[in-house]
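Onboarding guide, step 5: your first structure request.
Type a short instruction followed by the sequence, for example:

Predict the 3D structure of this protein.
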Amino acid sequence: MRADAVMLSYDEPRAGLLHTRLERVLGVKVKRLHGVVGMRRAYCLAAEVVDTDELLLADGDFVIDAAFDLRTVTPLADGVSMRVWRARNPLNGLVYGYGGLKLIRRSALRQLGEAVDVLAALPGRTEFAAEIAGTTRIDQSAYHAWKAGFRECAMLTRGSEYGMSDQETAARIATWTEVAEGEFASYAVAGARQGVEFAHEAAGDPALFDRLNDPAWLRARFDDQALTG
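The system replies with structure tokens like these:
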């Protein structure tokens, strides 16, 4: 199948290197959207920079496995808007869709609804591939590790928008908040614990919960926690 590829990056320190790697492994030109404010806006723009009906989408911290073979990727089935390949978390060992490579129907991005976990608002179904496509390098700085834990555990605590069971959600929160090794591991754990607290703080306040997608607010929250934590 033919699908254009796009990397969405914002401020990830290694995004340039990972973009080069993505092109080398996929063997195709990968378009890049960088520094777009607003995640929903970035995803919507991704639909406009491609020429194919389906597009591969990678985040600016995604390290694609060298063995990933674009030639084995099949088109999305009818009724499916997105396929997600799993990614490894280098700090806590979790392997699931968080930070993974995505294949998305262009028309679905143009009908994107409203959700804090933006791609959960795609029309149609999401399917999860068993294959591990790479690693999500959330450990590029103290801030990025903290932000990853904070956002993910806030959203998991509020409730998965992908039909995850309560038991699986609880297990993932427990791992995020208790397990981590490597550089910036303590920041990921601290962010995860603060994300759980924030989800309770923002319960019933959609406007506050929406701040999870506000880069300036997240950075200020991190700076405040670093000073007071």
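Each response can be followed by summary notes, for example: The CA atoms of residues 9 and 60 lie 4 Å apart.
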